[in-house]
Amino acid sequence: MLEKSDLKKTVSKEEYKAQVKPLQEALAALDAPMKTAGLPVIILFEGWGGAGKGRVISRLILNFDPRWFTVVNIQPPTELERREPAMWRYWCTLPQAGQMSIMDRSWYQEVGVLRLEDEIDDLTNLRHMNEINSFERGLTDNGYLIIKFFLHITQKEQKARLEKLDSDKDTEWRVTPNDWRRCRQYDKYCDVFDQMLEYTNTPYAPWHIISGMNDEVRTLEVFRTVKESVETALKLRQEQKTLPHHISNVIQPGQYHFLSMPKLADVDLDKTLDKEHYKKQLKKEQEHLSELHNKIYRQKIPVIIAYEGWDAAGKGGNIKRVSEALDPRGYEVVPIAAPTKEERERHYLWRFWNRLPKDGHIAIFDRTWYGRVMVERIEGFCTPEDWQRAYREINEFERQLYDWGAVILKFWIHISPEEQLKRFKDRQETPSKQWKITDEDWRNRKKWPQYETAVNDMLQYTSTSFAPWNIIEGNDKKFARVKTLKLINAAIEKRLAEEKKHQR
To answer: For a surface tag, which of 102, 264, 446, 493 has the fewest beta carbons within 10 Å of its beta carbon?
Structure first.
């Protein structure tokens, strides 16, 4: 792609002055419609050192109200950031609806300059690029506009600019040993950039290769591209509101190996555990989990435990028995309620990326990202296309967590309608438990058939080899608690054994 870019293009001072003012006025006029439409925009700049990224960003932001944009400067990941999944820090920078994020470098560092400098192998690099494509597709599918610029200059021009900066005491700090190495090895980096651009040049997030050789050309092309891209996105949003919309019935789970799961109606809920055996097994499994917690901390293995289930299924009591075995410094229970206004104005997975554990720690989610394909589906809080597409987005999310090294455990606590009714009545009639029962619980109960259909779909399309579902028979709470602890211990033991084998 870089070979096709025109690096000889110039523009006269007069032409520049005539063209830039209307563009500046048009860009300034975008603030209000972007805010009204709730359009989140990400503008990212990649390219050669010395190609003028900082200069063009400085000019671009002068056209916008500073209340509606943030400039994000991305450096190589810190040690703390390396303890999180690769895409974690980029999810944390996502702008809210109606706001703009302008990025001086981005998630492309890992598949660009760092591919050579960190000696990333081809297979890992391909996985990173697939993660990026999934990330950008997920954002654009959920209403984001992504504008990607690569500023290109020749090796000769880069060397001249670096020498000029390096010769001035006020600017020599801007030139690093990495800049000189990249200039000397220009052809190697050029090949890496070309592969990156080709593989990630998608219809939903295309690259715009801009010549950095001429200051005026660079400014005009960036201004014009931003203006046209935002105007097109705003027009499309308006058309989607007024034109008839065809509803698809196609569920998109992605290309994964899915495990066979029983239908909820076929699960045997008669399994029980007497009190004496319960106490013995509970103590045994909790003590074992406590030992394993120390081991995963030393091995820096993150564990993510996700709880879903019927209202009154016993999730809280189950989580309590798990957390009793853990060092409080090494875990967090994350209760998930309805999204806040800030959370609704971002991609629905944003709030979960922000609550992931560091490596060596455990996060226990009391309800999860699966609300998208259950409550949001049933209650109409998202469109059919949104929840049908979410299976793939969730599988991609969990695959990234697995590739990061996480142990992922997903539990559906299952009870019968009769058992739920019994527990509802007990809560309603016991003063100390009345806070646990709400009108919403009774409303949800009336929709049991719809929820059962949604749960069966969820189990079918998101039980993967790397993040399988575990159905916990919950009519007997004692049985459910011990089974859950056993499954957690077994999964951690398996992961520790794999780690030990890998270290040999």
So the answer is: 446
**Counted domains in the chain:** 2
CA nearest neighbour of 70 among 90, 92, 44, 99: 99
Residues 337 and 224 in one domain: no
3 state SS of 276: helix
Residue 411, pLDDT score: 98
Task: Give the residue from 466, 404, 467 showing the smallest Cα distance to 128.
Answer: 404
Compute how many other C-beta atoms are within 10 angstroms of the C-beta atom of residue 420.
20
Q: What is the pLDDT of residue 436?
A: 87
Spatial strand order in the sheet of 207-211: 69-73, 100-104, 41-47, 145-152, 207-211
Give the chain's residues under pLDDT 70: 244-247
- 197 and 303: one domain? no
417 plus 367 within the same structural domain: yes
Q: Where are the alpha helices (DSSP H) in 315-373?
A: 315-323, 341-344, 350-353
Pairing state between β 207-211 and 145-152: parallel
Question: Is residue 194 included in any domain, yes or no?
Answer: yes
122 and 230 housed in the same domain: yes
Residue 11 lies in a domain: no
Look up the CATH number of the domain holding residue 166: 3.40.50.300
**Position of tokens 């997903």?**
410
* Domain span holding position 366: 264-503
Q: How far is C-alpha 319 from the geometric centre of its chain's CA atoms?
A: 25
What is the C-alpha to C-alpha distance for residues 9 and 235, in angstroms, rounded to an integer?
A: 31
Long-range contacts: 239-247, Cβ < 8 Å, 24+?
247/383, 247/384, 247/385
Q: Are 232 and 353 in the same domain?
A: no
* Count of other CB atoms within 10 angstroms of residue 453: 14
The number of beta carbons lying within 10 Å of the beta carbon of residue 489 is: 18
Q: How many CA atoms lie within 13 A of 95 on its CB side?
A: 27
Tell me, what's the pLDDT at 76? 86
Q: Is 45 exposed, middle or buried (0-12, 13-18, 19+ CB in 10 A)?
A: buried
The number of residues making up the chain comes to 504
pLDDT of residue 244: 67
d(CA 168, CA 172): 6
- Interhelix angle 215-242/13-28, nearest 10 degrees: 30
> Residue 357 has what DSSP assignment?
P
- Tell me the pTM: 0.93
- pLDDT value of residue 500: 87
Residues 482 and 355 in one domain: yes
Which pLDDT value is given to residue 396? Answer: 97
Distance CA 353, CA 370 (A): 14
Whether residues 225 and 282 share a domain: the answer is no
What pLDDT is stored for residue 129 in this prediction? Answer: 96
487 found inside a domain: yes
